[in-house]
Amino acid sequence: MSRPVRSVLGLVALAAVAVALFFALRGLPDLGHGNGPNAHSVPIALAHQRQAANAVNGITYDLRGTDTLGEELILFAAALGTAIILRAGRGEQDEEGAEQEDESPPTSGALRVVGAVLVGPALVLGGYVVAHGHLTPGGGFQGGVILAAALLLVYAAGQVVALEQLRPIDLVEVAEATAALAFALVAIGGLVFSGALLANFVAYGSLGQLLSAGTIPILSVVTGVEVAAALTLILSELLDQALVGDAA
After folding, report:
1. Given a cut of 80, is residue 146 above it in pLDDT?
2. 157 vs 17, which has greater pLDDT?
3. Distance between alpha carbon 64 and the CA centroid of its chain, in Å?
4. SS3 label, residue 106
């Protein structure tokens, strides 16, 4: 397919999306008038029936957990596709050259210090957001992005050699696949123990406690691992591609 044809198809697709977005936005309620019955009943139901203090996380991993399962698989497929495409475009010699590259990109001393100092707090914050998503604003998607950002901070500090040690690709791939499988197993567990896919079949505990809300925090943690691993894999492949290009 020639470049002009791809450009035309891309413009047509963007125009179609713009039209659909325009009509979707026209259907939204006016600002300040969007409080429907669910805005009041859903948080109350989640607090009393699921012992989940964060209604957003409760909706994500309970009321619409099947949609979240699909989103999880989309991210999994995106990371897998990125790795396959980029690795296919690199030869074995290029990969070996990227692994042996010891020179860090030129960065300022201030950026090195800030990047190195923020790695630890980013990991702690990401873990907290993932583990407390059913209690406070946050959850697996948000916390997973923060955890993956720690890798970017290492790169921003110019520590390419340290980066190679912090992100063993085999472990990242195993973590991503295991997290995706764990989400699917919890979904099947709901079908087996409660008769519905992704039904909340674990004891709910008490509202406000860390061990509460049944499967909601479990799915939040699993999602955090999946998001962090997927983004780390994508970023690692892009960095490897850039290093191979610089070496060439």
Report:
1. yes
2. 17
3. 17
4. coil
Mean pLDDT lowest among 105-109, 148-152, 177-181: 105-109
Which letter does DSSP use for residue 105 in this model?
P
State both tokens at 28: 């939204």
> What number is the average pLDDT over the span 21-36?
80
Buried b (16+ CB within 10 A) or exposed e, 166-183: ebeeeebbebbeebbebb
- Helix residue spans in 132-168 (DSSP H): 140-156, 160-166
Instruction: Spell out the residues 6+ positions from residue 199 whose beta carbon is closer than 8 angstroms to its own.
Output: 190, 191, 193
- What does the block give as tokens for 199? 């039904």
Judged against a pLDDT cut of 90, whether residue 160 lies above it is answered with no
> Is there a contact between 144 and 231 (Cβ–Cβ < 8 Å)?
yes
Q: CA–CA separation, 123 vs 96, rounded Å? A: 29
Residue 158 main-chain phi, psi, to 5 deg: 80, 15
Which one has a higher pLDDT value, 135 or 239? 135
Q: Which residue has the tokens 């190679």?
A: 164
Confidence check: pLDDT of 18 > 90: yes
Residue 3: the pLDDT is 85
Tokens 């470049």 belong to which residue? Answer: 3
Does residue 98 surpass a pLDDT of 50? no
Which amino acid is present at 141? F
Q: How large is the C-alpha radius of gyration of the chain?
A: 22
CA atoms within 13 A on the CB side of 208: 0
Token duo for residue 2: 């020639």
- CA–CA gap between residue 64 and residue 49 (Å, rounded): 15
Contacts of 218 (CB under 8 A, 6+ apart): 186, 202
